[in-house]
Amino acid sequence: QPEVIIVALPHGLATQWDHQLLEARVCKNIRIEQAEVVFERITGKLPIEALAPRGLLYSDGFQPTALTLLSTRLLSLCVALAGSILFAPLLMLIALLVKLDSPGPVLFVQDRVGFGGKPFKLMKFRTMRPCEKRASEWEGDNIHRITSVGRWLRKYRLDELPQFLNILKGDMNLVGPRPHPSCSFEFFVLVSRNTPECGSQIPFYSLRYSVLPGITGWAQVRFQYANSVNEEIEKLRFDLYYIKHYSLWLDIRVIFETFWIVVTGRGSDSLARSKSRTSVARPAHTELFQTQQGRGFQHEKKSFGR
């Protein structure tokens, strides 16, 4: 006597059970649901491996209204303006500490990809010692370069405060997918195509640019720092869920959860756990990454996820 039947079958495949499912739905009033929908509802992320183009074309999501876009933008502007004024003394103190702690510029400026694939200059407080050449862009491979002040700034996410200026300039919102470096675009488009379980591949990564990037986001409060390709794909699942369900209320929820993370410093120890989990798989993505390094991977970053 089931109350619900969850169907996990390839899209568009007629099966011998179709008539039985129809009878269960019509005659016995049993709810029939697709596995992808249930997965999304339970986990808060999209199962990109199993999604088909038609699943996105006829989806109720991915269509924020003009009012939603306006309200989220106004929220971001108000918070950024108020934060720039209220935290001005703290910003000056942090700038002084960064300068005294290690040689190098106070701000770290990097080319990132924003709305519609347009590049912009992202600003944050420098948290690493300058280095002419790096073996990798993963944070786990550059942890030895993090300064004393930088470690403290990262724990409470205070290194992101200069991005209030990016919001005021129109490059970012307060909440959205974290912007990735410009030179990594082709790399992530390649590795984020879904597996052919649904019959075709979809460049899901490009969907991230359908909304403004953010200082924080659904992936940031649901997951950890990413230090491998697999973890970046996991964060992409959360980013796509956010874009599909884009709303003012979801932004407010993310803001409150981000505030709690900042206050408690939660997630600051995730790097060590992430590094230990992904060390075995390191050779698998190192070759891909070295290929990209030849195209200009010469910049500092926490991780692609942040």
What is this structure's SSE topology?
Blueprint: E1 4-7, H1 18-27, E2 31-34, H2 35-43, H3 53-57, H4 66-86, H5 88-101, E3 107-113, E4 119-125, H6 148-155, H7 163-169, E5 173-175, H8 185-191, E6 214-216, H9 218-222, H10 229-244, H11 248-264, H12 270-278, H13 282-293
Parallel strand pairs: 1-2, 5-6
Antiparallel strand pairs: 3-4
Helix pairs in contact: 4-5, 4-7
Describe the structure.
With 306 residues, this protein is mainly alpha-helical. It is 46% helix and 9% strand. The protein contains 13 helices and six strands. Strands 1-2 form a two-stranded parallel sheet. Strands 3-4 form a two-stranded antiparallel sheet. Strands 5-6 form a two-stranded parallel ribbon. Helix 1 links the parallel strand 1 (4-7) and strand 2 (31-34). Helix 4 crosses helix 5 and helix 4 packs across helix 7. The radius of gyration is 21 Å and the shape is elongated. Residues 270-306 have low confidence and may be disordered.
Q: What class would the helix/strand composition place it in? A: mainly alpha
Shape: elongated
The string of secondary-structure elements, in order, is EHEHHHHEEHHEHEHHHHH
**β-strand number:** 6
Number of helices: 13
The mean pLDDT is: 82
Q: CA-to-CA gap between the ends?
A: 47 Å
Q: Please indicate the percent range of residues in DSSP E strands (runs of 2 or more).
A: 5-15%
| Rg on CA atoms, Å | 21 Å
